[in-house]
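Notebook entry, structure prediction.
Reason for the run: the old model in the group folder had no record of what sequence produced it. Starting over properly, with the input documented here first.
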Amino acid sequence: MAQQTVIPRPAAAPAATPAVDRKTRARRPRTPGPRTLLIAAVAWFLAAMFLLPYAEMVITALRPADELRDATYLPSAFEWANFVDVWRESHLGDNLRVTLLVAGGSTLLVLLVAIPAAYYTARIKFRGRRLFLLLVLVTQMFQPTSLLVGLYREFYQLDMLNSVWTLILCNAAFNLAFAIWILTAYFSAIPEALEEAAMIDGLGRAGALLRITLPLAMPGVVTAMIFTFIAAWNEFVMGLTLSTAPESQPLTVGINSFIGNYTVQWNYLFAGSVIAIVPVVVLFALIERKVVSGLTAGSVK
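New structure, fully documented this time:
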């Protein structure tokens, strides 16, 4: 009999495991749905609406003087010399230096006073504590404009007009109440057991505050710092009243000098405005990460 030839069958491919299937599906790009596209379109529209005034400010700052009244959105050429001219032909450099000193000094003074005051108020149940917090909140309701006459008279008698220290003290005084109020809430939300454990390990009250409580309250500290810095940076009325010399005025008052009785130097006005917002943008870029890191820092010994 003839021998039968057996042809081997090809081996079947192994079935894909569920893990491989999940990885393959995860690598495939997902097609966004109509709802996602609508939300993205609305978000981009709102972002464009908020960024459009800043774009107009930069374009006007770079517009030549003979094209300020043209109906075109973009100028024929960008005049970069506007930034150089506004820096040379005015006291904008001195105004920027004064504003940096006033905003930085006011923020530092507020934090030095508000942190101990808020910590004592949050931890020590003294008599009149609620009344103290109420008075702190009431002082936040006073407008600096209503006190300008008295402040001007006081600093005039002390011969402290046209002084950076005068603006630092005034800005710190008007922003101190908010800082104490918000820091008291943050300190009250932190459990006292963490400080007690640290003091059992040998730390004192000040050490527990600096190493345990303060890092946990860093989001509140950063919030108070940003609020104080921005408020001092944008302050106008006190700077206009208490500083009369052009070189001792803050940046907000210095920019206002480009608005005359009959003409407005729009290119210089917007160039100074662009210079004024750069430090604030840099501050937010540097501090934004501190808010997140302060939520977990200090809780692990």
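Summary: The two ends are 88 Å apart (CA to CA).
The old model has been moved to the deprecated folder.
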